[in-house]
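$ fold --in a.seq
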Amino acid sequence: MSDLKLDRRRFLQGSGGLLLGTLLFGSGPIALLAPSQSWALPMTTLDTATGDHLMVVVRRIYPHDGMEDAVYAFAVKSLDEKASKDPGIADLLKNGVADLDQKAGGSWLKLDEAHQVAILESIQHSDFFIMVRGTAVASLYSNELAYLHFGYEGASFPKGGYLHRGFNDLTWLPNPPADASPTPLS
């Protein structure tokens, strides 16, 4: 039975990587939804080092001051899901991260932001950059945690339209005459 013992290192090696973080802005809207200040997001295909690199790459491509890493981690999770379905994408992401480190002459993560961005600009037409950018934009800006960060309340139609959500506060134009609006349906 001692063969069933699974320590943390063996668990992480056998299950892809793990993105870990702590909410930095404990009083923000995301913190109100979070059950704790710490978070973890498991990956099935990519290792932790690749995930850490990708999270910073996404942050450099789509920088938003004050946005928690937890929001960016969902973009990395989307990349991991694509990599788990296609070994070619997994290789593309791993090789892209290795290329960043090679261009940095060591660890790309240890460079300051300006140098990281300069290297990303130099590879902006590469398949790696295009894959990360395209996946991240869809994942990042369709994430409810990002909505909280930006103050976006979501689509209007399931909640009665904008008129009934506080957007009927137009004060810079005179009120239109009553006959300019259709009669409301009952």
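$ fold --in b.seq
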Amino acid sequence: MKRKVIRGFFLAVILGPFCSPAVSGLSLEDIIGREKTAALLAGEKLVLSQFNESQPRLIPQHRSLLTLVDTIRHDLEPSVMVETLLVYKKPENAKKDAWSDEEAARLYNGILALSTLAGLQYYSASRGAMRTFYETSSVIDGQSTKRPIPDPVFTRPPVRLTIQARQKDLTFGDNIYQYDYYSEPGAFIFIQQNLTSLSYGIIPAIGKNKLQSVAAVIDAGDYLLVYIASMSKAASIPGMKERIGNSFANRSEALFNWFSNQADKALKK
């Protein structure tokens, strides 16, 4: 517990008002290097699963993101870590050097629109077929009351925002999550953390507060770079870590498809 308090204080000091240098104007190569850039622009989806080792390999060189992931990694000590790196090409009419204030607000509100996750499909490796990710998804007024409220909307992205959501996952059940959003020039980062225990059918899979998924959207000229790292302390049941790892990888791709749809709405104005 003491270590978590110290790390939480350290994170608050480092991030401060979350105003690290903007990445606007940087290219994909500046952020992830030539090799990964070439792979992404060739149409590859970079995915890496690790078990019992959680050193990130695909993470972009972005100070705030590196700090957040490092803090979570050391506090959580995950047994499963799945990284996904993807790229979204901006529409022709979008600003290429850096997103405008209007584009940033629309994109941020699109990411906040958790109700639009309801009905999202993903490929289930265990079933070999498409499956619904979240049957229902809504922002709520609190963990105890669980009353649904409208998705938040902002004219200007706040530096820091915390909301809670109730999401019924057809794999892990009906659960409450906390979402922490961070914004800075040229980047949005949000973290999903489970406030209730997750079960795989009738089998306990992940205890409460033992799953944290970090998603970052970084402006990179003609592209938006999307990085997702899902980390969890999975139950010590044979095969469970591998099942969870496969699920994380497939769900990350589904989340990217959802994000792409939200970005299309925000940037094709």
